[in-house]
UniProtKB/TrEMBL annotation:
<feature type="region of interest" description="Disordered">
    <location>
        <begin position="929"/>
        <end position="952"/>
    </location>
</feature>
<keyword id="KW-0539">Nucleus</keyword>
<feature type="region of interest" description="Disordered">
    <location>
        <begin position="1"/>
        <end position="125"/>
    </location>
</feature>
<dbReference type="GO" id="GO:0006355">
    <property type="term" value="P:regulation of DNA-templated transcription"/>
</dbReference>
<feature type="compositionally biased region" description="Basic and acidic residues">
    <location>
        <begin position="91"/>
        <end position="114"/>
    </location>
</feature>
<dbReference type="Pfam" id="PF04931">
    <property type="entry name" value="DNA_pol_phi"/>
</dbReference>
<comment type="similarity">
    <text>Belongs to the MYBBP1A family.</text>
</comment>
<dbReference type="GO" id="GO:0003677">
    <property type="term" value="F:DNA binding"/>
</dbReference>
<feature type="region of interest" description="Disordered">
    <location>
        <begin position="959"/>
        <end position="978"/>
    </location>
</feature>
<feature type="compositionally biased region" description="Basic residues">
    <location>
        <begin position="80"/>
        <end position="90"/>
    </location>
</feature>
<dbReference type="InterPro" id="IPR016024">
    <property type="entry name" value="ARM-type_fold"/>
</dbReference>
<feature type="region of interest" description="Disordered">
    <location>
        <begin position="440"/>
        <end position="460"/>
    </location>
</feature>
<feature type="compositionally biased region" description="Acidic residues">
    <location>
        <begin position="966"/>
        <end position="978"/>
    </location>
</feature>
<dbReference type="InterPro" id="IPR007015">
    <property type="entry name" value="DNA_pol_V/MYBBP1A"/>
</dbReference>
<feature type="compositionally biased region" description="Basic and acidic residues">
    <location>
        <begin position="1"/>
        <end position="10"/>
    </location>
</feature>
<protein>
    <recommendedName>
        <fullName>DNA polymerase phi</fullName>
    </recommendedName>
</protein>
<feature type="region of interest" description="Disordered">
    <location>
        <begin position="603"/>
        <end position="625"/>
    </location>
</feature>
Length: 1319
């Protein structure tokens, strides 16, 4: 249409007039469409070639391009379309161009007169104030502030012009001088020419595209910028109409219709621009307040009806005009009084018909208009079916009515991604602002009493009823069951509900269908809605950040409708994250109460079964369902309860409370639930009241499955174990039972156990019941003794023993018939450990015999017998006891622990059962590198036990299922004979018997590996608590033998022996880690008088030989695979590294001990023997760098062996070894050059003859290879330099004799001559 071109022409002339450099600017403007097509882009590209003529003749500017292009031949279809469109624009421009032309001429004349600056207009030859036309350009600026300033300037200047025009007596004289060719019947006769021009230009401007791109050619360079014309011109029209009273509303409506008329020749973007222009023009009128003023001046004014009719007609033309047209109409509705709405808006032509067809057509904007009008007036019959009659909130959200308007609401998706305006209006009716966040009125946490008081209100009940109806019919029934767009809309509407939603209504919006829909979407990342659902969960998580009541309700809803598997199915950590953010005690207590209610109330389970797979939650430690025996027996209905059981301990684990008392109260609540549901059952109903505890305990109506009760006991063990670890180094010495969870548990257990109507969930046999009572009694006595303790160490020991007794008590209930013997032995150890105390002795205990084993041996043996079949909490309790008592461990107990580690996983074919440990240590030198027995990893059944002690670097495993072997006939609970000391050997024999009977032997193999790993954890604790400890020389047995050296020797032997770690890479890595971190690299190491050189000598010799041991392949492996060969070579290098590190460590111990010269000479003899093999044997793989490092760290060894080195270098069989060994000689000389000058001189002088003999031999028998000859010359140069330093050149030359001097001069040349000159 012509209006856009005229607008661009005015912008071009403004650019010309305001240019400071006065260059000629060729301006090419093109409209950047909102949705440009390929044809449009081609058309814009061609427009760049059209030159615009001079600004004085606008009509020629439209005609010239068309006429010039008409001479082109032949014309293609695109060019013909272009010419037709240009002609249409010229034809439709009409009188508007005359106004533009007149304005332009007026501006040119004013410039010629010199009275005004460029870009201004003065209609009336100085009679009227100036009006700057350049503001039209600023109205199209991208910056909103620039547009606003231009609109204000436009309004102010034109108001001044109009005021001056109104004061003129002869207005015809001004119009004649203006030379404007505007229509006389446009209704603006009372307006100044500039105002009339501005009105028409602003109306045409609002039809411009949203972004107008200008290409300005300056010196053949194009500068591109964007402008926002439609918004700026609409703002200017608004302010102008509101400011200048002379502008009549009727005239504006006619001008909008005439100037922005859609003709039949218009297509595509042109039609859209005209329609949007009319929309913006009507919006400008609405915001100007002109309609309100017209009604106030004349209540019978028909312009409001006409305006309403225009908007309704416009809304009916295109779907995208419908919502903004209603928004403009609502602008008027908000400003007019009720009388005007009734007589003008509602009586407008076409409105009632438009409203009546809304439900059938699915028109959400009609519903929005009806609701907004209903807020101001109480008229029901005017809206027919669109609103309920009589109107009320309950009627608005009635099921029948919601079903009627569901089509309207479903069609509101056309404005996505934005949410339609009708939804916030409905939500304001549904959830009034008055009750917003009523749950948080008294703080972040609300109690259940508050909820009950709220629900007692009828208004709250009606609101909940309305919310349920809305969610069921609209959200679940209409949107979630429809297309992806409507599913997204459903989630967006739920997010709109959140800010006003009370926490008690969370379960309404997070219903079964909503949660299932989220799970379906999030289970597939390729889904279009995946990011939408993620955003929903993110907003939901942010909504609950500062309110634990909301957090609890959200967690309960998500897990209830997913059977506790929301995180698993969605592959997210939503629930885990929500559960880990509890920071207050009231929030945790509320969550625990909700979990308990969910567990006990069977009606809480989801009414509809989940169609998702019954997989467990592997992504979340919180609420995960482990793959245990229970998983096979639990049905779908029990998964939710199992999640409750596993989530309760996790609450206090992630809770970070500054006050220990608050944390303890949370732990007590969890403990009571787990103990009641796991350990006890009621014979009289589902409720039992304890008057002593003043509490009522409940059980589910249906009996708890055994797998679920097992889970409760396991979580109870875990809770107590974590409580013990979190007590700190000494919370035990305080003796305050109020903060001791173990003491509280035993008291709680005793009270419930004595209630007649309550019994243990599992009946115990006589042996278990006897052990159960013994454990109860001993724990009670130890608890009293702990409070009496004056020393921290004794209190720690008693505290650790108490928790071990508690864990054993739970194990007896959990696995009947397996732990009563170990429990009796631990009780006996407790009595012997604190024999001097007031602990009661059982009459059944036999008196201690003279040959009875030591207490620590019995305790170690008992703990070893428990380790193979212990759970993670029981292992943790064992480790705590061992940590407290390990300083008193005997060599015998330590030996049995090491024997477990050294036990072969796969015995050798020619294994001699009669061989002792010494023979086994000697055998390590003859071990061949075995191939990997199997490419597969060990068949470990590791679980996800993350609660083991930090000192244990291995993953925890499932409890061993094999039973303990029966005790011999000679054994009894009261006394222990020698057979009891070797229960561990009996258990190992049982493992291998099972290995023969089972296919593949995977179970027995994995059990032994786990047993070794658990014993290694104890050894690591021992080394941590006893770094570098040695037995006192006063001990009769193994006097002077350091225990750390013994552990090192056995662990190294276990690592080197391939049968020890067969098929378990983890076991080998664990042994290697302990040797490296806890022994070889530890700050403390054995030293002093307690270390005997007799122990270190054989170890040093073995590891030196091991360092020189060559790599051997197994003879049977004729063609091993690359993988096995690489593994064998890697293992060889690892063992070689261990041998070198061990040698350095042993030499460090020797160096730090005060050994005699005779003992040190023995050490040097061992190294000398190794050097003999190094020089004489080709099989020796000893590295020269390793020997150099020994001499560098221990110079006294090099000093003792220097003469021997010189002799062996002179007579070495291998020329390669001879030259390589020269570095050893150089290293010894270097280490002694740093000593005192006199000592170094004496040392070197004593070896001058041997040095001269060596150099004479080297230069006489010079190597053939150039690199070796260079090495010899380098060595001789260093020796000559040192001899010259200590002035021993003369004696050296004399020792060379005549033939040696000739050889040196021949081979060494200037180097030797320089030395000879110093003689």
């Amino acid at each position: 249409m012509g209006s856009k071109k005229r607008e661009s022409s005015s912008k071009q002339e403004s650019a010309l007039e305001n240019g400071e450099d006065k260059q000629k600017l060729n301006v090419i403007s093109e409209n950047a469409d909102v949705e440009p097509s390929k044809k449009r882009m081609k058309k814009e590209k061609k427009k760049k070639d059209i030159e615009l003529p001079e600004v004085e003749n606008v009509n020629d500017a439209h005609a010239t391009p068309a006429s010039s292009n008409a001479h082109r031949a032949p014309l293609n279809s695109m060019e013909r379309k272009k010419h037709r469109k240009l002609k249409d624009k010229v034809r439709h421009s009409g009188e508007g161009q005359k106004i533009d032309s007149g304005a332009e001429k007026m501006e040119v004349e004013s410039k010629n007169d010199g009275n005004e600056s460029g870009g201004t207009s003065s209609s009336g030859g100085g009679l009227l104030p100036k009006f700057h036309i350049g503001v039209f350009k600023e109205l199209a600026a991208v910056d909103a502030s620039v547009r606003e300033a231009a609109a204000k300037t436009l309004a102010v200047e034109l108001r001044q012009v109009q005021n001056a025009y109104d004061k003129l007596e002869n207005k015809d004289e001004v119009e004649d001088k203006s030379k404007l060719e505007a229509e006389k019947d446009d209704g603006l006769n009372n307006c100044a020419p500039s105002v009339r021009y501005a009105v028409r230009r602003l109306i045409r401007g609002v039809s411009s595209s949203r972004e107008v791109r200008f290409l300005i050619s300056i010196a053949d360079e194009f500068i591109e910028f964007y402008a926002c014309a439609r918004q700026g011109f609409a703002l200017g029209l608004t302010m102008l109409v509101a400011t200048v009273r002379s502008i009549k509303l009727e005239s504006l409506l006619k001008l909008i219709t005439s100037l922005l008329e859609v003709s039949s020749s218009m297509k595509g973007q042109e039609v859209k621009d005209c329609l949007l222009g009319r929309l913006f023009a009507y919006g400008a009128l609405a915001r100007s307040g002109k309609l309100t003023e017209e009604w106030k001046s004349d209540n019978n004014c028909v312009l409001i009806k006409e305006f309403t009719k225009c908007l309704i007609d416009l809304a009916a033309k295109k779907r995208y005009l419908q919502e903004p047209a209603v928004a403009i109409l609502l602008e008027i509705v908000g400003k007019l009084p009720e009388e005007a709405l009734l007589e003008h808006i509602l009586e407008a032509s076409g409105l009632q018909e438009w409203l009546e067809g809304a439900t059938e057509a699915g028109n959400p904007d009609a519903l929005l208009l009806a609701l907004k009008i209903q807020e101001k007036v109480s008229i029901d019959h005017k809206f027919n079916k669109l609103l309920p009659s009589p109107f009320s909130k309950s009627a608005l959200f009635a099921a029948d009515y919601l079903s009627t308007i569901s089509s309207c609401l479903k069609e509101s998706t056309f404005c996505q991604p934005r949410v339609h305006s009708v939804w916030p209006v409905l939500i304001s009716y549904l959830l009034p602002d008055v009750i917003q966040d009523a749950d948080s009125a008294s703080g972040p946490i609300s109690s259940k009493k508050h909820k009950k008081s709220r629900k007692s209100s009828s208004a709250d009940e009606d609101m909940e009823k309305n919310l349920v109806s809305f969610c069921e019919i609209i959200i679940q029934g209409s949107l979630l069951t429809s297309s992806h767009d409507r599913k997204k809309l459903a989630l967006d509407v739920l997010l709109l509900l959140l800010p006003k939603l009370p926490a008690s209504y969370v379960h309404v919006i997070l219903s079964y269908k909503v949660v299932q829909g989220l799970m379906d979407i999030l289970s597939t990342k390729d889904s279009w809605l995946y990011k939408v659902a993620q955003h929903f969960l993110k907003e939901l998580s942010e909504w609950v950040v500062n309110d634990d009541t909301r957090r609890v309700e959200v967690i309960m809803a998500l897990q209830k409708h997913s059977n506790g598997k929301f995180d698993c199915i969605t592959r997210s950590k939503t629930v885990k994250g929500l559960m880990s953010d509890f920071k207050t005690e009231p929030g945790c207590i509320l969550f625990i109460e909700s979990l308990v209610t969910m567990f006990l109330d069977e009606d809480q389970s989801s009414e509809e079964p989940s169609d998702q797979s019954q997989t467990t939650d592997d992504n979340s430690e919180i609420g995960s369902i482990e793959d245990k025996d229970a998983a096979g027996t639990l049905g779908t209905a029990e998964f939710l309860k199992s999640w409750v059981v596993e989530s309760l301990p996790a609450v206090q684990k992630h809770l970070k409370l500054e006050q220990e008392a608050a944390k303890f109260r949370v732990e007590k609540e969890v403990l009571k639930f787990l103990a009641v549901q796991g350990l006890f059952s009621s014979s009289l109903g589902t409720e039992v009241t304890s008057f002593e505890l003043q509490e009522t305990f409940r059980w589910p109506k249906s009996a708890i499955p055994s797998a679920l009760s097992h889970m409760c006991i396991e979580q109870l063990q875990l809770l107590l174990s974590n409580a013990q670890k979190g007590e700190g180094p000494h919370a035990v010495a305080s003796g305050v039972e109020a903060k001791d969870l173990g003491s509280y548990f035993m008291r709680f257990l005793g009270i419930l156990y004595n209630i007649p109507s309550v019994s243990l969930s599992r009946a115990l046999n006589s042996d278990d019941e006897k052990a159960f009572k013994k454990l109860q009694a001993m724990e009670s006595q130890l608890s009293k003794e702990e409070r009496k303790c004056s020393t921290t160490s004794d209190a720690s020991k008693i505290h650790a023993l108490r928790y071990l007794l508690i864990q054993l008590l739970l194990q007896i209930i959990l696995r009947p018939g397996e732990f009563f013997e170990a429990a009796s032995e631990v009780v006996m150890c407790c009595k012997k450990a604190f024999a001097s105390s007031d602990l009661e002795s059982s009459g059944e205990d036999e008196p201690e015999e003279d040959g009875a084993p030591e207490l620590m041996d019995v305790l170690v043996d008992t703990m070893l017998s428990l380790l193979p079949q212990s759970s993670a909490p029981l292992r943790s309790a064992i480790e705590q006891v061992f940590k407290c008592f390990c300083k008193d461990i005997t060599d015998d107990g330590l030996h049995r622990m090491l024997r477990v580690v050294k036990k072969d996983l796969k015995p050798a074919r020619h294994h001699n059962s009669d061989s002792d440990d010494d023979d086994a240590e000697d055998d390590l030198l003859g071990l061949e590198e075995a191939e990997e027995s199997d490419e597969a990893e060990t068949g470990e059944t590791a679980d996800s036990d993350q609660q083991t002690d930090e000192s244990e670097a291995v993953v925890g495993v499932d409890a061993v299922t094999a039973e303990l072997p029966d005790a011999s006939d000679d054994e009894s609970d009261e006394g222990m004979d020698d057979d009891a000391m070797f229960r561990m050997d009996t258990y190992l024999a049982r493992i291998f018997r099972e290995k023969k009977n089972q296919a593949g032997g995977e179970t027995a193999h994995s059990q032994l590996v786990l047993f070794k790993l658990r014993v290694l954890s104890l050894l690591e604790l021992y080394l941590h608590e006893n770094p570098g400890k040695s037995k006192s020389p006063l001990d009769i047995v193994d006097a002077g033998k350091p225990q750390v050296i013994k552990i090192f020797s056995n662990l190294a032997q276990a690592f080197i022996n391939p049968q020890t770690t067969e098929g378990s890479e983890q076991l080998g890595q664990r042994i290697w880690g302990i040797i490296q971190k806890k022994i070889l690299k530890a700050k403390e190491y054995p030293k002093g008088e307690t270390v005997s050189v007799a122990i270190l000598e054989p170890l040093l010799e073995k590891y030196l030989k091991l360092a020189a041991k060559p790599f051997k392949r197994k003879k049977s492996a004729s063609n091993p695979s690359k993988k096995k060969q690489s593994a064998s070579w890697s293992r060889h290098r690892l063992i070689n590294s261990l041998a070198r590190s061990s040698t350095f460590w042993i030499l460090k111990i020797i160096d730090a001990s005060n050994f005699s010269e005779f003992e040190l000479q023995k050490v040097c003899d061992i190294l000398q023997h190794i050097l003999v093999d190094y020089f004489d044997s080709k099989k020796s793989q000893m590295k020269c760098e390793f020997l150099k490092e020994i001499f560098r760290r221990r110079p006294w060894i090099g000093k003792q062996l220097f003469g021997f080195l010189l002799e062996k270098c002179s007579c070495a069989k291998s020329q390669f070894r001879q030259v390589e060994a020269l570095d050893l000689v150089t290293e010894v000389l270097k280490s002694h050059s740093s000593a005192t000058e006199k000592t170094s001189e004496q040392f070197l002088k004593s070896h001058v003859p041997k040095l001269s003999n060596l150099i004479k031999h080297l230069v006489t028998n010079m190597p053939d290879k150039q690199a070796r000859r260079a090495g010899v010359r380098k060595f001789c140069g260093k020796v000559f330099q040192m001899l010259a330093t200590f002035k021993l050149s003369s004696s050296f030359v004399d020792a060379l004799e005549e033939d040696g001097c000739a050889a040196c001069q021949s081979q060494l040349g200037d180097t030797y001559l320089a030395l000879k000159k110093q003689v």
